[in-house]
Design goal:
Largest interface: A-B, 87 and 84 residues
Strand content of chain A: under 5%
Structural class of chain A: mainly alpha
Distance between the termini of chain B: 39 Å
Number of helices of chain A: 12
CATH class of chain A: Mainly Alpha
CATH architecture of the domain at 61-233 in chain B: Orthogonal Bundle
CATH topology of chain A: MetI-like fold
Oligomer: heterodimer
Shape of chain A: globular
Largest sheet of chain B: none
Structural class of chain B: mainly alpha
Radius of gyration of chain B: 23 Å
CATH class of the domain at 61-233 in chain B: Mainly Alpha
Number of strands of chain A: 2
CATH topology of the domain at 61-233 in chain B: MetI-like fold
Largest sheet of chain A: 2 strands, antiparallel
Strand order of the largest sheet of chain A: 1-2
Number of domains of chain A: 1
CATH superfamily of chain A: MetI-like
Order of helices and strands of chain A: HEEHHHHHHHHHHH
Shape of chain B: globular
Helix content of chain B: over 70%
Strand content of chain B: under 5%
CATH architecture of chain A: Orthogonal Bundle
Radius of gyration of chain A: 23 Å
CATH superfamily of the domain at 61-233 in chain B: MetI-like
Helix content of chain A: over 70%
Distance between the termini of chain A: 38 Å
Amino acid sequence: MRRRNLAPYLFLAPNLVLFAVFVLYPALNGVNISLYDSTNGRTFRFVGTRNYRELVGTDAFREAITNTAVFVACFVVLATVVAVGLAALLQRGLPGSGFYRAVFFVPVLLSPIVVGLVWSWLLERRGGLVNTALGAVGLPEPGWLIDPSLTMGVSVFVAVWLHVGLYTLIVLAALRAIDPRTLEAATMDGASARQRFWHVTLPQIQPSVLVVVIVSTVDGFKTFDLLYTLTGGGPVGATTLLLQYVYEQAFKPPIRYGLAAAGSVVLFLVILAVTVVQFVVARRRELL
Amino acid sequence: MSRGRALTYVVLTVLALLVIVPIAWTALSSFKSPAELAQRPPGLLPESFAPDNYVDALGRFRFWLYLRNSTIVTVLATVLTLLLNAMAAFGLAKYRFRGRGVIFGLILCTLMIPLQIIFIPVYQVAADLGLVNTLWGMIVPTVATPTGVFLLRQYMLKIPDDLIEAARLDGASELRIFTTIILPLCAPALAVLTIFSVVWRWNDFLWPLVIAQDEQTYTLQVALARFAAEEVIPLHLILAMSTLTMLPVIAVFLVMQRHIIRGAVGFTP
């Protein structure tokens, strides 16, 4: 009997130890580190809240915050809309739907590093495949990765390209679970296809759409590898997100380890705030 | 109706081409010589499918070293993830004990805090433990995934308690119940977790980048990104290496497509 009481703790122990050491402790200790200054990550000098004050006064940091907000917002909205649209098209069950579903899923499995490399090559200003095609039909050939007014849009597009297959599957699963009788009833009452979508389908898949919003929000904030090879954060910082900013403070000379830790805490708090808001909204609307 | 149908196909096909063309174009171009790649406008097919670029890429960099590192990290991390997550999931799904709710709640919370977000303080822990520049440093912090625990738990909840009780009456130890009853019954869920763990770890970048500071511990992704960023590799080699990193994943996907798609909905990283 005693062995049985101990069993669950023993089963959980290895996972919990790693969890405590590599998630829980660092998540809390990050705040602690952010109160110190360090130029090497080994010796630390207590500076109180100076790192935070310095961050707020740094243009590059403020730009990274703005970039992150724009990137995540555009990415989440576009990815969600495309996922719902694609899922609705696939749900029609036309012959070949399985093939299309599989094709849209492939990018999810690819390395973001490689995806960034490939797209940066396709989008090269001179001789890139995209501009060659545009030039062939007499359209202008923009500098997709050179023109600061275009790179953010390109980054969002490639991020959607990479992730949307997974989100589509989540919505598709919800669409499949809809009771077809509700749609038949709406049709009998004379609802048009558009009305059926907005008033019958959409309310029923709302919880899954919310899951897509939450997951894509975290994916958006996590974006690092893709932009590392696609834009490198450029041109001149136009696509540098918070995560990259934090990375550079910590690992690119001149090393400002404490500053990076403070940026990391800010990033953590932002994500926390955004997801809490999403959960509260979901709860209020009784979606979760 | 048929017009709507045609329109659906047009839209789906255009979007599918948007996925297929970049990948196919990369694979085709990876066989082109530097001269062909510089050609304007580019030709569609390479002049020959001789694997010159691949041979060149494999010989030029310590490709086998990076491949070895990537493979070791992927395999060990996946095995440990499966084992530890399954154990934790079993503990949470099939026992009542003090603190269960709290532990489960904590694990759920961290679904929202991926390693990437808190990588600075995690790096500090890794550095204190002497894990920088080691493959273990890339493996261990990624193992306790909340996603894996959560999904395996959901799966195990469906296993009837009677089975476990019967085994206990027969005198089976708890460990034996876990290895001979629970694990085999969870095979489908474990298979899906395996696939996803392999893909995550194979494609991982930020954490390996931080840990692998010496070339000796570079993974494929780290090597590719670092060399590309420094612009030290010519295009034809980048294309060959990119194709080499993409193709295994696509091949596995084509073979196991149905499992992957079915499991994917539950496994959002």
